[in-house]
Structure formats: C-alpha cells, structure tokens
Specification:
- The protein contains 1 helix and no strands.
- It is mainly alpha-helical.
- It is rod-shaped, with a radius of gyration of 23 Å.
C-alpha cells in the first residue's frame, strides 16, 4: 500500500465521518425545532382553552 492510497483512504473515512457528524447535527436540530414547535403549540392551545 503506497502513501497515496493511504491518503485517499483517510480522506474517504474523514468525509464519511464528517457526513455522519453533519447528519447527527441535522437530526438534533430537527428535534430541537420539533420541541420548540410543540412548546409554541402548547402555549397557543392553552390560550384557546378557556379557564374553568
């Protein structure tokens, strides 16, 4: 295995790792957005429901 092959393999692994990392961050951002929307929706519905 030459150095060039090693570099290519390392680059490929790095790219895949970064892609996985980006995907993980995206999933977290989606869940944060969903949580914020749920909280906002909860506030809206509590306003709509009259106090008994």
């Amino acid at each position: 295995m030459t150095d060039q092959q090693g570099v290519t393999l390392w680059n490929r692994l790095s790219i895949e790792f970064l892609a996985d990392l980006n995907f993980g961050v995206s999933v977290i951002n989606i869940w944060v957005l969903v949580g914020e929307m749920a909280v906002a929706a909860g506030k809206d519905t509590s306003k709509c429901i009259p106090d008994h």
